[in-house]
Amino acid sequence: MRTDRPEQVAELVESALEREPSEWGAFLSESCGGDEALRAEVESLLRHEERARDFIESPAFQMAAELLDDGRTELQAGQTLDGYEIKRPLGEGGMGEVYLARDVELGREVAVKLVKRGLGTADVLRRFRHEEQILASLNHPHIARLFGGGKTTEGLPYFVMEYVEGQPIDKFCDARQLPTAARLQLFRKVCAAVSYAHSHLVVHRDIKPSNILVTPAGEPKLLDFGIAKLLDPECAEAASHTVTMLGVMTPEYASPEQARGEPVTTATDIYSLGVLLYELLTGHRPYHLQSRRPEEIARVICEQEPERPSKASADFGMRNAELKTDSANPQTPFRNPKSLRGDLDNIVLLALRKEPARRYATVEQFSEDIRRYLEGLPVIARKATFAYRAAKFVGRNKVGVASASLVALAVIAGLTTTIWQARVARGERARAERRFNDVRKLANSNLFELHDAIANLPGSTPARELLVKRAVEYLDSLAQEAQGDASLQRELVAAYLKVGNVQGNPNNANLGDTPGALDSYRKALLIAERLTAADPADAQSRRFVGVISEKMCDAQAATGDTAGAVESQRRSLSIFKAIADAAPADAAARQSLAISYVKLGDVLGNANFTNSGDEAGAMQSYLSSAQILESLYAADPANPRTRRLLGLIYERLGTMLEAAGRVDEALETYRKSRAIREPFAADFPHDTDAVRDAAIAHEKIGDVMTAKGDLQEALESRRKSLEIFRSLVEADPQNAQARQSLAISYLHLGEVLGDPDSPNLGRRAEALQQYRLALDTLKAADAPEILNNAKTRETLRRIQERMDAVQSSSTLRRPE
Amino acid sequence: MTTPSPQDVTRILKDWSDGDKDAPLKLMPLVYDELRRLARDYLRRERSDHTLQATALVHEAYVRMVGSQKVGWQNRAHFYGVAARLMRGILVDHARAHTALKRGGLAQKLTLDEARILPHERAADLVALDDALKLLAQTYPRKSEVVELKFFGGLEAKEIAEVLGVVEKTVLRDWNFAKLWLCRELSKESAGAD
To answer: Which residue from B minimizes the CA distance to A586?
Structure first.
């Protein structure tokens, strides 16, 4: 129905929108009088209020970028610039296009960086000549050399520098899934380069991931040292200067002093390094800039306190339950919020201080603090954060229970107050919603932060239990109020999921309350399923159903409910399958589906996991996974995740074949696994998991060869895996998992050499030697304390037993 | 191709204020070129999602093309207006071509919800949105312009108020109304052309 009074319609709709929906009826009765046509028109618009809320709220940029990219570049291949022949474009940076070129005279490859139009003020080149000497003299393994500069016929300035083949540091870390320690070590190399430049009185001014390339060998190279200064029009007045500089820089990396147009010093680089480290550790930048208005950016950078990295990381990715190899130890934690908590938080935040004088004094000091962190020494940046205080408080009070409970109660009291305040403020709906969000954030952060902080303290269990109990009560009451509010319900799903993990997910630190965990998962599932039913297009909730079901599978398997576990995993799989089917070109979705098939196979009938004894079903599921991965691999053989998973699925299949006594097929499958894993580890020598997987591939072949009685090849495989495990321990002596694996590897080598109870080569003395090495590995002075666990004790017992066996058989043979 | 300097752009903007009727025509190709260049940047550079989503191309274009040159607020408003219109034109043209290719020219009406829609589906949404926006303009020209500036231009309410010469509150009311109106229009079944 239409009316011919558009202004009146608009006026009424707009006024209604400023009122609560509950008041609309009365408002319209009053304002429309008896005009039913008018009222109908207004109501037909207001009916869309819910849907319209998020409608076109995010501008169309992403699509704009994709649609507008027509691939034109400024310079063409074959063109020559003062003795440099342009070969092809390499990419674009904030200040211009970069090309691969050949120095015709010297015959070497160089990178030519063309300064963007609009930035090419006439002064750039003049300033470059002024600084050329200093910049060209920077000679450091982690700094890309600057060879020269000039001007194109069109008047655009360009710089010629060392050509570095590599990936931006953030992408490098992600592609190789580097664990935190490796990221920190890489970052320290960057620090060394910056520190060197500072000692030559050169400040970078524009440190960010795209300016730091990492070579395939894992060596970082900093690009564009001192270039930012050349583009910085000193003559311009301060305010407009800010605008220009922020236009050139990636604003997220700009320091407060840069944003304010104040002098740039070495402290500026320290700040940008802090932003970089933040991003490498959490996957986020410290600020979420909502606006590109220079004044607004400057305000955020200068005033807003960044979120602690551990917290920023806690929100990161919800499906972190990655797979384990058969050898059962959890993978190295990747971006584990827990490992960021405390000292590392403080280190990053010290570098990010707003006031230059309150940051680290030098880059070297910054880097040194990270080294101290890596070595477990106290760091300069240590500061009493909430979790730190809580941990200390509980730790000091040996009675534990009572005091820890007090801490828990204090947290809960804080929550209750906020809820109450939220209720009071409910007059205006929008504001109340915002309060609810605050409450939710508070709940998540404090609760889980506190839980993790006290998890390792003796006597804290009652406090943790209380904490979780209160959290559940809190969520339950929130659930009552969340009826009809889809976004709040989604938050509830996430929160129940988290609580469930803390209660009893076997894959993380938990309270061992598996039934409680299942209860929370069920609540989460119920809400998520309702959300999906109400809005089949709600992709996020559907995904949640998949994730929750997978967690339920873990928990059910842990309680021995294998039928339930299988059912949950099948439900989870159906979701991930639907997602993958809806986007056939989405490799990540298909990888995700492949993982689901692996997990289903594990719980159906893989003897290395709690399973329901359906070996044939497991095999079938693994084959489905392999099929997906093989097609992904055929399409993109370089995809690291595909390679990793393909290596894993062949190992799984091999295990099943081996268990079924199909030894030759098992061997063939294990060899396929090795054929994937060996080159993968060679490509990613810093990826501990990749390297470890290669070692396990050798181990598996060793197992089969021993069973087949081909002891020479068994020996060969044992030696290879041992070599790899040894290198892992050498690279990281604190890595308990690597140490355990190395010990087991010595044990296995010893067994092939001369264990009387299995097929062996009769080399008993050498066997004993290997067993001793195994013992030394676990009992070494520098072995981490964490080795004092059940698995290690079991390994030690077994080593001792094998030693005894060899010795007694030797005694029998050599009468003395 | 010669590079337009900030002075050139500023001069065109000033001429515009002084009554030069051809000024928009002179400005458009320059802005168009810059927008394409920026878009390319985003694809090749740090394209982490939040950067893309939270970034207004027209702001960037403004900073690059006008920079620290002194121009009055009317000139700035002119620039934003031109840039937003261009963005809409570029996007919708491309989307139309894309849709024609993919779907044999049949404009399908779908919901426009960021999180749920695959990129190739969004082209169709954009065409539908553009059509709806034209209808809206027949009855509510200013409200339609608000949508153009905000959704296609990425401008904030305060800036839109500047461009249109109204108070910020009016912009917000226009925006909220236009969203309802467009949602209603887009939710009509394909038979619902009126």
So the answer is: B118
A291 in B contact zone (CB under 8 Å)? yes
* Cβ within 8 Å, pair A118-B67: yes
Lowest average pLDDT, out of A270-274, A353-357, A588-592, B141-145, goes to: A353-357
Residue B90 CA: distances (Å) to CA of A727, B107, B152 = 56, 18, 10
Count CB-CB contacts under 10 A for residue A215: 13
Cα torsion angle, A583, A587, A593, A597, sign: positive
Q: Is the Cβ–Cβ distance between A10 and B140 less than 8 Å?
A: yes
What the block records as the tokens of A429 is 């709906």
Identify any residues that bridge with A167 across adjacent strands, giving them in sequence order.
Answer: A214
Confidence of residue A344 (pLDDT cuts 50, 70, 90): confident
d(CA B41, CA A247): 13
- Please state whether beta strands A167-168 and A146-151 pair in parallel, antiparallel, or not at all (unpaired): unpaired
SS3 of A377, please? coil
pTM of the model: 0.44
Residues of A in Cβ contact (< 8 Å) with B50:
285, 288-289
Q: How many residues are there in chain B? A: 194
Instruction: Give the whole-angstrom CA distance, residue B64 versus residue A115.
Output: 13
* pLDDT reading at A397 higher than 80: no
Q: In the numeric block, which tokens belong to residue B147?
A: 């949508």
Q: How far is CA A582 from the centre of its chain?
A: 26
Phi and psi (nearest 5°) for A7? -65, -40
* Chain-chain contact of A55 with B179 (C-beta, under 8 angstroms): yes
Structure tokens at A593: 């589906």
Point out the residues of A that are catalytic: 206
Q: Which residues pair with A80 in a beta bridge?
A: A85
- For residue A17, what are the contacts with CB-CB under 8 A and spacing of at least 6? A46, A49, B173, B176, B177, B180
Q: Amino acid letter at A646?
A: L
pLDDT for A320 beyond 70? no
- CB B39, CB A65: distance < 8 Å: yes
Nearest to A92 among B41, B111, B116 (CB): B41
- Contact between chains at B3 and A237 (C-beta distance less than 8 A): no
Q: How far is CA A681 from the centre of its chain?
A: 20
For residue A107, pLDDT over 60 is answered with yes
- CA dist A644 and A613 (Å) reads 27
State the best of B112, B122, B179, B182 to mutate against chain A, taking most chain A CBs within 10 Å: B179
Separation of alpha carbons B148 and B175, rounded Å: 10
Phi, psi of A749 (to 5 degrees): -60, -45
**Token duo for residue A677:** 């894993």
Reported ipTM: 0.78
- The angle, 0 to 180 degrees and rounded to 10, between the axes of the packed helices A429-454 and A386-396 is 40
CA dist A769 and A777 (Å) reads: 12
Task: Tell me which long-range contacts A807-812 makes (C-beta under 8 A, separation of at least 24).
Answer: A807/A768, A809/A756, A809/A764, A810/A764
- pLDDT of residue A144 exceeding 60, the answer is yes
In this structure, are residues B3 and A154 in contact, taking their beta carbons and an 8 Å threshold?
yes
CA distance A18 to chain B (A): 9
Dihedrals φ, ψ of A43, to 5°?
A: -65, -35
Q: Does A486 touch chain B (CB under 8 A)?
A: no
CB contact under 8 A, B126 and A60: yes
> Would the CB atoms of A293 and B183 count as touching at under 8 Å?
no
Residues in chain A with CB shorter than 8 Å from the CB of B59 are: 292-293
* Secondary element (H or E) of residue A88: strand A84-92
CA A554 to chain centre: 22
